[in-house]
């Protein structure tokens, strides 16, 4: 291969890694929530809250790190509202989850007008800076692909492994999964199913909030009203495709991240924007249809 071809491949792979981060964080959060028995349809709303409050926190403190913390906590608290409605009030989870996705952009629009004077775009803020890996950055091709990303990419990989260990190798993980599949066992042990579910929903909100914050203070340095743009729904397809397994969410998010990277590359080739924009969602439908077909065949066998 010539240098231009290698550079193109490296560029697409690097973009794939970047695009996988927000999807991966949200997908892991969704998997944790669903393992506890609470449907994770509010990821789009959590990401929206995380993206906005990350910018607001960075804007008010002049610190991207504090902005990240603010975005994560705000999304976690927002998720607890959904948890209260679903766990304590016993509301229909599908309706209340979709309701959170409707409330979030409306709430953010009000705050945008009140703080920044418009609902379309915030002021510029400090953002997370890319990290050059000491050895890898000097290696041709590998340096272009794996170096020069923000700390959130590397944190995503570590958190995915950590969540897998907790979910499958610890008593807390057993309790989490039992809350979703056999809640009567948890109650027989004298433990609170609701407490486990609240922790799972709060964690889900925090992780999805980090995914949203990545969009606003890592990829960019401002919030815009169309920033999340359906990624929360794609994250649902990611964790379903991954079988609700945090480590598999890495590979699934890379697959969907690749479709977004290709989408970006196609924009430079003059293809109709409508076709380009539908690519990630079309791939999502294909994956979900394939999963449904595979499960039907397995059930028949």
State the major sheet. none
CATH class: Mainly Alpha
Beta fraction of the residues? Answer: under 5%
Strand and helix order: HHHHHHHHHHHH
Give the uncertain stretches in residue-range form. Answer: 296-301
The CATH topology: ABC transporter involved in vitamin B12 uptake, BtuC
- Number of discrete helical segments: 12
- Kindly state the number of beta strands: 0
- Approximate helicity band: over 70%
Distance between the termini: 46 Å
* Silhouette: globular
What labels describe this entry?
301 residues, mainly alpha, ABC transporter involved in vitamin B12 uptake, BtuC, 12 helices
Topology record:
Elements: H1 3-35, H2 43-61, H3 64-88, H4 93-116, H5 142-146, H6 151-169, H7 171-181, H8 183-188, H9 193-219, H10 231-241, H11 246-267, H12 273-300
Helix pairs in contact: 1-6, 1-9, 1-10, 1-11, 2-3, 2-4, 2-9, 2-10, 3-4, 3-9, 6-7, 6-11, 7-9, 10-11, 10-12, 11-12
What's this model, at a glance?
This protein has helices spanning 3-35, 43-61, 64-88, 93-116, 142-146, 151-169, 171-181, 183-188, 193-219, 231-241, 246-267, 273-300.
Description:
With 301 residues, the protein is mostly helical. It has one domain (3-300): Orthogonal Bundle (ABC transporter involved in vitamin B12 uptake, BtuC). Helix content is 76%, strand content 0%. The chain has 12 helices and no strands. Helix 7 crosses helix 9. The longest helix has 33 residues, at 3-35. The chain is globular.
């Amino acid at each position: 291969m010539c240098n231009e071809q290698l550079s193109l491949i490296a560029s697409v792979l690097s973009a794939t890694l970047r695009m996988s981060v927000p999807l991966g964080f949200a997908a892991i959060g969704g998997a944790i929530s669903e393992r506890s028995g609470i449907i994770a349809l509010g990821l789009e709303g959590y990401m929206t809250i995380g993206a906005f409050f990350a910018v607001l926190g960075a804007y008010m403190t002049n610190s991207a790190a504090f902005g990240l913390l603010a975005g994560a906590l705000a999304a976690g608290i927002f998720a607890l509202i959904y948890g209260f409605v679903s766990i304590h009030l016993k509301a229909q989870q599908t309706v209340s989850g979709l309701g959170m996705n409707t409330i979030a952009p409306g709430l953010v629009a009000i705050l945008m007008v009140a703080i920044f004077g418009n609902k379309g775009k915030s002021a510029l803020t400090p953002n997370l800076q890319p990290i050059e890996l000491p050895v890898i950055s000097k290696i041709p091709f590998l340096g272009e692909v794996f170096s020069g990303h923000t700390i959130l990419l590397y944190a995503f990989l570590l958190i995915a492994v950590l969540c897998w260990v907790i979910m499958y190798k610890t008593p807390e993980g057993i309790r989490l999964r039992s809350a979703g599949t056999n809640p009567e066992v948890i109650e027989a042990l004298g433990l609170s199913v609701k407490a486990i579910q609240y922790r799972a929903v709060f964690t889900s909100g925090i992780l999805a909030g980090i995914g949203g914050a990545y969009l606003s203070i890592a990829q960019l340095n401002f919030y815009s009203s169309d920033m999340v743009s359906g990624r929360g729904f794609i994250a649902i397809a990611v964790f379903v495709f991954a079988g609700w397994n945090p480590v598999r969410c890495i590979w699934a998010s890379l697959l969907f991240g690749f479709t977004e990277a290709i989408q970006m590359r196609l924009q430079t080739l003059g293809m109709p924007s409508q076709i380009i924009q539908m690519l990630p969602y079309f791939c999502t439908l294909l994956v979900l249809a394939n999963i449904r077909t595979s499960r039907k065949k397995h059930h028949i066998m």
